[in-house]
Structure formats: structure tokens, C-alpha cells
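1st attempt posting a full record on here, be nice pls
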Amino acid sequence: METFLQPFIWIYHFVRAVFLLPAKILNYAYTGVLAIIDHFTHKNRIQMRLEEQEKDAEVEEKIEDMIPSEIISISPNRSVMPLEKKISFRYVVKNDAGQTIKSIFDAYSQEEVYNFLTNEGYQVVSIKPRKPYDIELFGSGRMRPGDLSFALTQLSTYIKAGIPLIDSVRILAKQSTKPEKRRIYEKIVYELLTGENFSTALEKQGKTFPKLLVNMIKTSEMTGDLANTLDDMADYYTSIDQTRKQMISAMTYPAIIFVMAIGVIAFILMFVVPKFIEMFEEQDAPLPWITKFVINASNFLKYNYYWLILALGVFIFVFYMLYKNVTGFKKAVQTMTMHIPIVGNIIIYNEVTTFTKTFASLLNHSVFITDSMTILSQLTNNEVYKKIINRSLVNLSKGSKISEAFKGQWAFPVVAYEMLVTGENTGQLGLMMEKVSEHYQNLHKNAVNQLKSLIEPIMIGLLAVIVGGIILSIIIPMFSLYSEIQ
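the predicted structure (as C-alpha cells):
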């Protein structure tokens, strides 16, 4: 299967590079224009403040030369007053192997960046404040479950081996081949050096790390069980990553077949059918209804394909914006999708698996139920389940049980509900949720395999009907012409 998909993967990367090329060209043009503007304008306020700091640093240089470099702190309160917010710097350094590394770093002063990089063992080549036009179109975004699982497993192994946390994160930073990942780990090291907790350091990275992970680590810091928590979360994200890959695997083949089918049908209608239309017109042959339908479809596609592409683009854009910004529309689409046979089961099983697995992990690490439900409401992207979880929070505030909010909900299977009630009544809610997650994870896997086996013959049959209909519309008039000739 992987060998079969490899050419399509190459095609995907090629198409992606082609589509990203205009964005890169616009970025370079934008950079050049702003560079010219910047050349003829005064330096911005932050640059002026930096120059003032450099002048102050020259006054203190003699004193600092007498201080050993080992005790120089990277704290923002070191020698200069911090600005209102951190400044973004672009630096070039060399590592121990002599490799040149280019990246960016946020700090309160240029001196801070220098001290941090030298303390990390780099040879500094240059450090410059980023210009206003020095932007990055594609940021690091969120850490994927697979990356999280790998990183958490490594951290746990290093900590169990007696390596301090900060040195463990340093190892992750230095072995990262992707600049955005190395940048994230360097920021964490920086926060740890300034005295922040590990959970706070992760939280300061914005949306890079899931709130679930941050809260679990925050709990482990209070209990002193960081290594085991990292192992549990690594297993959790491994399971999430496997589920995600199953979904991708289930949809890859049908998507490829669908795109190829559309391409083949469009090619036949736009380039093959017109040749036969000319022949039929020359011979003035009588045309059956199926041939007329294909000819009309061919003419419409040939002369209006750009409008169709534009309409499709507008539809996708409007749909995306409504889905992203209008809660009611998003909930309606999700509800309709969850009622589609097989597809709906896959979505429900996936949501129930994620909910129960996360809930069990939170409960087993002594997170309060109210805090757990709050975290769960923030994790899911499904508005149907958000409503149920928010209702459970209201019930908890009134002293009711969690299960009351899930009772009679079509999106929460009866088996899961009964296990939830049993867990509440027996005081083994965490254990019951683990059992539910295992059960529905297996159901989800089976449903995905069922979808894969079902979609393939449907797509092939649909393609055969459409292409066969087009061929039939051409063959029938040709038989009529042949009969007249005879």
C-alpha cells in the first residue's frame, strides 16, 4: 500500500511547493519594499531603546569584565530595565560540530540572547533585532501527537537516568533537526533558567502544547511524580496519534480515487467528446437523449470551467469561514455528519474514546472532577460534546452527578453511559473510563476498516457508471451511422 501511495505523496509535495511558491515570492517582494521604506525612515522605538541600552552597557563594561562569566545571569532584571515586552532577535551561531544554525529568539535585550546562547555552548556569529518586515508566514503551530509522544518518552527516560530536567530539554533542542522545534525547546530552557516551573514554561509557548499536557504536568509537579506522568502522557498521545493515522489511512485511498475520477471525467468531456461532436455534426446523425446530455455537459464544462472553479473556491471559503466562526452552523454540520451511516459511528467512537481516555488520565492523576471537565470542554472541537460537558459542569455546581448530563444523549452511547454511572456509584470512575476508552477504540478501528472496505467498491462502481455512460453515449450514435452506411 505504501509503495502504491508513494508516487501520489511525491505529487502532493510537488503541488504543495507550487502553491506555496507565490506566497514566498510575495513575501520576498513585501520584504524588499519595506526594506526600501525602512532605509528612508527613522528607526523604530524599540531600536532606539536598544541603542540606549548599548550605551549604558558600555558604561558598565569595565565592571562586568571583572565578573566571572559563570555567574552572569540571563535574568531580564540583570543590568538593564526590561522593556514593556520581549524583543524578537534573529541570530546566527555555530555548534560544537561547526554547523551554522540560524533562528530567532525572544528576550528583553540583545545581551540576554548572547548570554543564553553562550551558556548553551554555541559560538555566536551575529545577533540582530528582527525588522518589522522580517516575518514568518508559516509558524511552528501546535505540536503533533506523534512529536509529543516521542519528546515526552525521551524526557522521561532522561529524568529516570538522573539527568536534570533543564539538561534533558537541552538535549531535545540540540537533536532537533527542524528549526521551529529547536526554537520551542530553547524557549523552554530559557524559561527554566529564569526560575519558571516546567508547566509554566510550556504554558508560555502559547498554543504549542495542549492544555491537557500543561495541567497534567502542573499536577505532577505538586505530587513529585513527573517521570511517570510523562510516561502516561506519552502513551496517551501515542494512542491519539494512532487513531489519527487510522483516519488518514481510511480517507487517503478514496480521496485519490475521487480526484483521479474527476480528472478523467473532465478530460473526457473537454477533449475527447468534442471530437465526436464534430463528427456527428458533419454526418447529421440522429442523437439519443444520453448523447445530447453528454454533449451539453461537455459544452458547459468547456466554456464555463473557470466559473465552476471560482464558484467551488468561493463555496469552500464561505463554508470554512462559517464553520470556523459561526457556532450554530458548525454544530449543524457536525450533527448532520454524525448521522451519516458508518461515518457517524467513526466520529462518535473517536469522540467517546478521546473523552473517556482523557477523563481517566485526569482522574488517575488526582485532578479534581470540575477541573477535569473544564479541560475536557476545551479539548474537544465538537460542539455537540461541548454542550454535554458544559451541562455536566452546571450539574456539578448544583451538586448533581456527572452522569445526569449524559443521560439520554444520542451522541453518547448507552454502554458508555452505563459504565459512567457504574464508575460513579462504585468510586472507580477512572478505571471504568479506561475500560470504556479501550472498548470504543477497538470499535473505532473496526469502523475505519469497514469504511475503507466499503468506499473502495463504491468509488470504483461510481467511476465505472459515469465513464461507461459517456462511452455509451458515443457508441450508440456511431452504431446508427454504421447502420445508415450499410
